[in-house]
Amino acid sequence: MADKSLIGPDDFRQIYDLFQASISRFDCGQKCAPLNGGEPVCCSTQHAVPVVQKVEWELLKSRTDMWTRFKPYDRATRQIVKEIGSSCAAVECRGARHCERDNRSLACRAFPFFPYIDRAGKFIGLAYYWDFEDRCWVISNMQIVEADFLKDFIKAFELLFARDPEEYDNFKSHSASMRRVFSRRKKPIVFIGLEGGFFEERAYGKGIRPIPAAKLPKFGPYKSDRAYARALKEAQAEAAAGGHHPDAHLVGDPARAGA
Fold it and tell me: So which domain of life are we looking at (predicted)?
């Protein structure tokens, strides 16, 4: 992350002002929450732990009491916090029921997407945090992403990159990590283009091509109505038995999240 002197709370205030649009007309949390004990995946630190720069944390603390430092709850999350860089902080909010939309972190506003940087170093679209493929309904339904969200996302991250070039480098590295992961999977990377539309980057440098919305991939319980019904039944049984703790992943710091 950049030195504190290179970017400050006022920069994040401007980024927040630019990034106001909702991701969709749908309340996507209603799709994943029934599989997650009633809490949307992106609002639960059982799944997603937001990471913010400390200067963003300063801004959030000055605006609201919605956020607190994340408290690790097991060995894995203690290790996650231990590995976070000194210029960052893991945080948690009070949950979806107490959300203050104007005081969401940048990671929350952007989830489940991050700016995808191609091999030539160009910001070409919105890719998703792949650790959440089987958890986040939006990743299996990218056609619902609103044009206003896309515009706000682009403006916000262009400003972030202008004020903090090291963040650009981090997302460039994270994009390269995604290419390595998907090359091993022998799967294309699907992303939303800067002017809309859907594209896939084929493995092993075989190029980028547009794809229709009907060809967008679906994952896990969101593959079909039958798969969702089965997952819901399993989630209800797990809740009755005392539940379980899925693996949590960091969101917002590409040097740490999902690599």
Answer: Bacteria
Q: Which residues of 183-247 form beta strands (DSSP E)?
A: 189-193, 198-201, 208-211
User: 165-185 and 147-163 are packed helices; what angle lies between their axes, rounded to 10 degrees?
Assistant: 120
Whether 253 maps to a domain, the answer reads no
135 and 152 in contact (C-beta within 8 Å)? no
Q: pTM of the prediction?
A: 0.90
* Count of domains forming the chain: 1
pLDDT in tens, 75-129: 888 888 888 878 899 999 988 888 999 999 999 999 999 999 999 999 999 999 9
- Rounded to whole angstroms, the Cα distance separating 216 from 140 reads 7
Tell me the residue range of the domain where 169 lies: 4-242
In a domain, 256, yes or no: no
Distance CA 55, CA 59 (A): 7
